Amino acid sequence: MAARPRPTSDAAREALQGAMARLAQGDQAALEEIYRATRVKLFGITLRILGDRKEAEDALQDVYVNLWQRADRYDPARASPIAWLAAFARNRAIDRLRTGKVRGGAVPVEEAAPLPDESPLADALLVDAEQTAQIHKCLGALDARTQGHIRAAFFEGKTYAQLAEAADVPLGTMKSWIRRGLQRLRACLEASEAA
């Protein structure tokens, strides 16, 4: 049996955007399509933040239940579907930490790797190497302090309060630093797209 050709990242992104639009109109099959395309990446995010497989599964379930209820809030002009969903999953996991819903018994992050899944990972389909390189290039253009705070907040799941405490600065200052850094990052990415 011949292997199916892998869709390009643009085609996969468009398919996911279409599924998000259909979901916003109440199409249940669209939710299944979104789930198949994103579950591994989003589970990886929740597991990395929560450190517990069961908690990560619960957080992921929350993501899709809330997505069903709030799909109409997605704006393709502001973010790619996978970036929006990744932020959604990150926020859900952090909410579980804040509300104390997480039980003890952490699971090593390495357990996220052997998940069985026949389809390619969502990030492999949706973010091609050129875009990834551009993001890292733009992140690298930021000063080291801002770069470190953005990476800690968005890749490690640290809250602004945790970052402010670690840097020994007021919470408002930390929020301002990250907001200005994200504005510079966005300007850099927009400039590279226009070029």
Distance between the termini: 42 Å
Helix content: 55-70%
Mean pLDDT: 77
Structural Rg: 18 Å
What low-confidence regions span 5 or more consecutive residues with pLDDT below 50? 1-7, 104-128
By secondary-structure content and strand pairing, the structural class works out as mainly alpha
Number of helices: 9
Shape: globular
Question: What does the largest sheet look like?
Answer: none
Bin the strand percentage: under 5%
* Series of secondary-structure elements, N-terminal to C-terminal: HHHHHHHHH
Give a count of the beta strands, DSSP E runs of length 2 or more. Answer: 0
Walkthrough of the structure:
The chain is 70% helix and 0% strand. The chain has 195 residues and is mostly helical. Helix 2 packs across helix 4 (81-98). The longest helix is centred in the C-terminal third of the chain and has 24 residues, at 171-194.
Give the gist of this structure:
The chain is mainly α and 195 residues long.
SSE layout and pairings?
Layout: H1 9-24, H2 28-50, H3 53-70, H4 81-98, H5 122-126, H6 129-140, H7 144-155, H8 160-167, H9 171-194
Keywords for this entry:
single chain; 195 residues; mainly alpha; 9 helices; disordered N terminus
